[in-house]
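Q: Sequence in, structure out?
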Amino acid sequence: MELEHVNKSFPGDRQEPVLVLEGICLDVLDQEFVSLIGPSGCGKSTLFNIISGLLVPDSGSVRIHGVDVRGKTGHASYMHQKDLLLPWRTVLDNVTIPLEIRRYAKEAARAEAMGLMEVFGLAGFEGAYPAQLSGGMRQRAALLRTYLCKNDVMLLDEPFGSLDTITKGKLHEWLLAVWEQLRPTILFITHDIDEAILLSDRVYVLSERPATVREEVAVNLPRPRTKKMLTSHGFVATKDHLLDLLS
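A: Exactly. Output:
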């Protein structure tokens, strides 16, 4: 995926346009995990809406595998911070929604989802309803549903932002294991610098609005990643650099 010189503005209170994104250039390689960090309200979610085709940029290009996807949905899977599980559906029936939309036969959709339940830590909970699940389990189900959209890129917008520190740490370890096994292409929004470093191959730092790319930072830590790396010299040095960019 490649974005080149993307600009986006919205009407202001006095009908004067408010520039939100200015000249955004970034790329995500196949099977890469890349994070976006930046101040609240700088336009990260707007950028995701553009990539997913929900918004059209004022100018600039958005390409996935070389195809212009501006204003076109169906190329990126989008997971919000809220899990948005349907309360009247079981876990199995929630995660198979993307396959239903693609007109999979019901049994084929269920069989494919069941084959991933253990990988996503949901084995034994296929028949549970969202109200019966913990916050972490709900996010696992939402992530499996996003994965089953079978699009080229997964856009994850602060998926663990509402979770407590202990649960979030466990989900980091779990997500790293899932990524190592399945290798989806992920662009990830977070305000948690430790999370960005631990999960990512690269981190893009955005400025205050109008957002520009302040710097692209490579995370030079070996994979597979573990929480023991949080205190390593390389991790701490990368964190210090990111904090300097955000200050």
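The chain has a mean pLDDT of 94.
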